[in-house]
Amino acid sequence: MLHNVHILTELNLTMPFTLIFISLLTASILMRLWLAGRHIRHVQQHRNQVPAAFSATIALDAHQKAADYTTAKAKLSLSEGLLQALLLVAFTLGGGLQLIDLYWRDILAEPAILRGALVICSAMLISSLIDLPFDYYKTFVIDEKFGFNKMTVSMFVMDLIKHSLLGLALGGPILLLALWLMQGAGEYWWLYLWLVWSAFNLIMLAVYPTFIAPLFNKFSPLTDLSLKQRIESLLTKCGFKSQGLFVMDGSSRSSHGNAYFTGFGASKRVVFFDTLLARLNADEIEAVLAHELGHFKHHHVMKRIAMLFSMSFLGLALLGWLMQQPWFYSGLGVEMASTYMALMLFLLISPVFLFLLRPFMASYSRKNEFEADAYAAKQAQAKDLISALVKLYRDNASTLTPDPLHSAFYDSHPPASIRISKLSAYTG
To answer: Rounded to 5, what percent of the chain is helix, strand, coil?
Structure first.
C-alpha cells in the first residue's frame, strides 16, 4: 500500500514538473523569436538614416554596414538557439541522455564515476559538434563578408583542438572530483564542491593571463615609450598595480578592436588589441583605459565574482535537494537516477529556468558600464572617450539603433545613443 502511494506521489509530481519545463522552454523560445524579430525590424527600419548624434562622425555606408552585420548575426544566433532548444528536448524528454547512459553502461559497468564522466563528456561533445557549423559560418561567412575575419581554416582548427585539449586537461579532473564528491562525500557534498569550484575559479583567474591566454594569442610588451609612460602615470594615479602593459595580436584573427585588464591579484595585466592601438590616438587610448580602470575602482570584477559564487552556492544547494527527488529524473525523461545524470540534467535545464533573469543581469552590467564611464570622465577627457567609442562603434560595425527591448534583455553595454548622451553631459 505504501509502495503504491509512493509511486502515485512520484507520478503526481513528475507530470507537473514536465509541464513546467515544457512551458518555460516554449515561453523562452517564443520570447527569443519575438525579441529577435523586433530587433531585426528595428535595425532595418533605421538603416537608411544615421542617428542625429552620430551624423557628423559616422557615414551612412558605415551605418548600413552595421545594420546588415547586426541582422546577419541575429539571424544566425536565432537559428542556433532554436537548434539548441531542439537538442535539449532530444536529450531530455526525447530520451537522448538515457540512450547515452545505456550505451556506456553496456561498455563500462564500474567505476560509476568514470562512466558518469564519459556520459557527460559524450553529451557535451554532441552539443559542441552541433554548435561547430555555426561558429564556422559566423567566422568564414558572416565575418568574412563584412571584412572582419583574419583567421585561416587551419588556425580555426588549431584553436578548436587547443580548446578541446585544454577543456579536457582542466575540466576533466574537476568533473571527476565533482562526481566523486557527489557520490561519496555525504549530505553536504554540494558545500564541499562549491568550495572546490570557487577555489578553481580563483586559480584560473590568476593563471589565465600568464599560462592560458598565450596559447591562443601572442602578447608582447608595449613598446611605444611615450604612450607607455602616459599609461603608467594613469595607472599610478588610479592606484592600479599590474604585471605589465601588453599588446595582443588581435589582428591575426579579427579586425575588431578592444582593450581590457585581466588576471587576479599580482597577475593583473593591461592588454591592448593591436587593432585598437592602430585606430585610436593617445588621448583616446588613455580614455578607454580609464574606463577599464573604472571597473577596477568600483570593484566590479570582485562584485561579479561574489555574484558568481553566490549563484553557484545556491545552485549546488538546490541540486543537492533535486538529486534526491525521483520526479526530477522521470520528469526529464531519465529512468535510471544517478549522481552524474542529476548533474547533467541540472546543467542542461538551468538556462531555461534562469532565462527571465537575463534583463536583470543585463541591467546590472549596464549600470557598471555607466559607472566606469563616469570614472573615466574624471580621470581623462569625456570627449576623448566619446571619440574613441564612436570609432569603435564604426570600426566594429556595432549598430547604433538596437531595438530598446531587445537591448534591455540581452545587451551588457548601454545602447550607443544613451551612452554617448550621458558622456556628453561630462564635457560641459
So the answer is: 75, 5, 20
Q: Given the residues 284, 292, 384, 395, select the one marked as catalytic.
A: 292
Task: Provide the β-strand partners of residue 219.
Answer: 248
Examine the residue annotation and report whether 224 is marked as an active-site residue of this protein: no
Q: What are the pLDDT digits (tens) for 51-105?
A: 988 999 999 999 999 999 999 999 999 999 999 999 999 999 999 999 999 999 9
Nearest to 421 by CA among 49, 56, 54: 54
Among residues 287, 323, 293, which one has the least CA distance to residue 187?
A: 323
Alpha-carbon span 331 to 329, nearest angstrom = 5
* Look-up of cell digits 559560418: 137
Catalytic residue among 373, 384, 395, 403: 373
pLDDT tens digits for 159-204? 999 999 999 999 999 999 999 999 988 889 999 999 999 999 988 8
Distant-in-sequence, close-in-space partners of 45: CB < 8 Å, separation ≥ 6 = none
Residues forming beta bridges with residue 254, ordered by sequence position: 149
Catalytic, 292? Answer: yes
pTM of the predicted protein model: 0.88
Cβ atoms < 10 Å from Cβ of 196: 14
